[in-house]
Every structure is written in structure tokens, then in C-alpha cells.
Amino acid sequence: SQKIEQNSEALNIQEGKTATLTCNYTNYSPAYLQWYRQDPGRGPVFLLLIRENEKEKRKERLKVTFDTTLKQSLFHITASQPADSATYLCAPSTDSNYQLIWGAGTKLIIKP
Amino acid sequence: NAGVTQTPKFQVLKTGQSMTLQCAQDMNHEYMSWYRQDPGMGLRLIHYSVGAGITDQGEVPNGYNVSRSTTEDFPLRLLSAAPSQTSVYFCASSSQPAGVSTGELFFGEGSRLTVL
Q1: Share of chain B above pLDDT 70, in %
Q2: Which end of chain B, N or C, is less surrounded by CB atoms within 10 Å?
């Protein structure tokens, strides 16, 4: 069955450093992959979408890569700030049914 | 802008009771969906709608009903609540199907349901 894996343990990063989060998928060939941010007690908020033919996508301090050979997407936050602390969710999808399959998310903690 | 509005934010039910979670969006989106979020698991799709009058089942539809009489509203009904339905429920909307290249989802703030 299709499986999406994100680091279940919280990621602790010092302020100013680059945070890198991983999203791995198996038994799946997504055409798109979305990343969302979720703060405690709030709904997810869309950040970035990357297509399978795009190796890299950037938005301000955010960068997403998509490696279809490794079946992996990496999400980078450069010059991290305490305000970046949140849970980050990845959600791939295919062209066939347009439904997203969600990872459980990785909790990111940026320490001052 | 209100975006996606969910009510209630919190609800406690007894086993066997029924209730409706309300969801409304003011962005004129055709696509709406309901997810549940449980600890350690990804969001799971319950039901979705591709337009007024059209609904379909998602991954975990049992015990839930939906209807879509207007573009704006997409209520989720729990027919006979069970402890296994204790969860946080999110309503989402989008202008395109969620999984296509422009299918950014807009989420509500969530409804936390506890079934005793």
C-alpha cells in the first residue's frame, strides 16, 4: 500500500541554522507534492507545491526538492527563526485520482 | 476574509448520540472535503465534494454522512457517535481538485470531538 513517511521525532534546530525535513514515499509515483505548515490547535496552511519534473522550488527562505529516484522530498528553511517552529506536513498526489495522501508531519523546534 | 469556518470548535458527545459539524467557505470553491486527524497519523479523507449536489467517499467514510446543497456549505454528520470517532476534524476547500498542480487546500481551524 502507499506509504508516506516523515520523521516522527521532533527536530531541534538552533536559530539561524538551516532546518531540513524529509518526506519519503513508497509504492507510489506522485506527480505533485505539497508542503503545509500546522501550528498547535490550527488548521494546516499551504506553503509550496512542487511537480515531478521540477527538481527544486523556492519561496523566500523555503526550498523544496523532489527526487523521484530516491522517492523523497526535502523541505529546507534557511536562516531559521523561532517563529518557524511548527509541524510540517507533506502530501503527495497523482494525476489519476487527485487525492492527497498525508504524512503524519514533523515537529520543528527552533531554539533562540 | 473569513475563508473556511468550522463550528463548533469543541464538542463532547456520549456514545450513540448524533451531531453535525458545520463547514462554510466564502471563496466560491467547488471542491470541499472533510478530514480527520489523529495523533501519529496523517490526515485521512472522510468525504469530499466536487460541487453542489455531488459527494463521494474518501478513505474512512463509515459512520459519517455528508451533503452539499450549496457551494458554500458542507456539513458532516455523525450518525451514532462511537469512541473511535474521537478526533480533530478539519474541513478544507479548494478551487481545483486537491491533488492537481493548482490544488492548494484552504483549511478551517478544526473541530475537536470527544466521544465518551
Answers
A1: 96
A2: N
